[in-house]
Specification:
This protein is of the alpha/beta class. It has 8 helices and 11 strands. It folds into 2 domains: 140 residues, 3-Layer(aba) Sandwich (Rossmann fold); 120 residues, HUPs (Rossmann fold, 3-Layer(aba) Sandwich), CATH 3.40.50.620. Strands 1, 2, 3, 4, 5, 6, 7, 8, 9, 10 and 11 form an 11-stranded mixed sheet that branches. Helix 7 runs parallel beside helix 8. The two termini are 18 Å apart. The relative contact order is 0.14.
Length: 276
Amino acid sequence: MPFKDILTVVDLAGSQAAAKYALELGRHFDAHVTGLAIAFEPVVPAFAAAPMPVDYLEAAHEQAVNAAKDCQKQFDELARLAGTKSESRIAEILTGGPLAGVMQHCRPTDLVVIGQVNPDSPEPMRELLIETVLFESGVPVLLIPYIGVKDYQPKHVLVGWDGSSTATKAIHAALPILERADKVTVLVIQKNEPSDGQPGADIATYLARHNMDVTIDVVTNPQTAIADTVLNYVSDNGNDLVVMGGYGHSRMREFLFGGATREILSSMTVPVLMAH
């Protein structure tokens, strides 16, 4: 089914790369896009020698809300220019606290679009927010590079495949985009010698039955780390979207290929769609 409801987390600074991508995606699929601006409430240290002045707390709260309102206005203007059906909201959360107030907005939607951590303009809790949305919302997540993208309609998509349920969920979540791509490449990374038969053949056949132009590429015993192998492949082949499954346990977050999560998220130059 095509996307009909998309939520994007609006950046507190920068060029709003994620919001722009979400709005173009919404326009492309005639979907409704919700922009969620987050107001980060200040933390009151429990070990403070004296209670924090009330006027200080009120001023800090007002500053956080006003910053979120400014971002909300930016989103509303971008939506107006894009001509996309939209609305905007503000979620107030305690800095460093639980993200339940954000999750309640993320769960009743088809896709959450959020920006990559921007080292030049870091935002509170962005890395934790990405992980929490991916692993606790139950909704696929589309991560957008902070540098932005040139083309909002992916034409050459890379699908990471290892036969797992998480990779399968990511592919199903991405079907509306995959069906409109010109080419889909199924990438299989094997650390050992190739197994009998053609790795990735089953999923390639499935995608081909959705009228996709599908090819399979198998990389055996890569000479670099898995994350670098994927990133180098994208750079060498001009892919404009990566579709991958994600899984995690306790506090460790890992991609389907292994512990490459943070390496890819920190170095990605194209959007990455993940599902858990």
